[in-house]
Amino acid sequence: MRNTAYDRMLDAIIFGELQPGSSVDEKFLAEHFELGVAAVRDALLRLSLEGIVERQPRIGTRITDLGLREMQDVFEARVLIEGGCASLAAERATPENITAMRSALDGFEAVIEQRDFRTLVHMDQHFHRALAAATQNRQIEQKVVQLHDAACRFWYFGLHRMEPRTVLADIAAHLDVVAAIERRDAAAAATAMRAVLGHFPETVRNFFSTSSIPIG
């Protein structure tokens, strides 16, 4: 039940149902998601430790802002960490890990054509979690999952404003990472992962100027 509370609230934040900067109330969330208050409280604590919500004594809980500075911080960290993650995965990934990475993106072309961006975000989550698991390093895995969850908020915001061919190329580039890992080419895997991550902040930055989302 507590994992369900966390997953459902994380989705609500990623997909904008709980909007950046908005205040949240434990009792309201419990009623909205049909969960116990204790489960909601635990989920909010976990989300606060990951920096996705802010809990302030005597003030309450709010969803963290979705701004340029926050985006830059997340993606700089991802480029550094996930580049190394891909390199390590090239050395340690099992056949099952490689299968999990590939299968996470099965059918992505149809999902993009249908503009089913919620499903695409979940597919991308599965991919990056499978990649992180392939490092066989729990500390790296936890950090990658945390950073990716934060990044999903920006990515989902940008997906609606991107050309389909751009999204297709972005997801296809993930398979270049898998191919390098399968060849056991650590340097190529790191380079391919940096290529996946490197362009996105600038792409999304261009959309913020016409958005009502704060850019502090």
Stated plainly, the CATH topology of the largest domain is called: Four Helix Bundle (Hemerythrin (Met), subunit A)
SSE pattern, N- to C-terminal? HEHHEEHHHHHHHH
How would you sum up the global shape?
A: globular
Tally of contiguous helical segments:
11
Q: Uncertain regions: pLDDT < 50 for 5+ in a row?
A: 212-216
In CATH's first tier, which class of the largest domain applies? Mainly Alpha
Strand content: under 5%
CATH architectural group of the largest domain: Up-down Bundle
Strand elements, count: 3
Helix content: over 70%
How many separate domains? Answer: 2
Q: Order of strands in the sheet with the most strands?
A: 1-3-2
- What is the radius of gyration? 18 Å
Write the CATH homologous superfamily of the largest domain.
GntR ligand-binding domain-like
Biggest beta sheet attributes: 3 strands, antiparallel
Distance between the termini: 35 Å
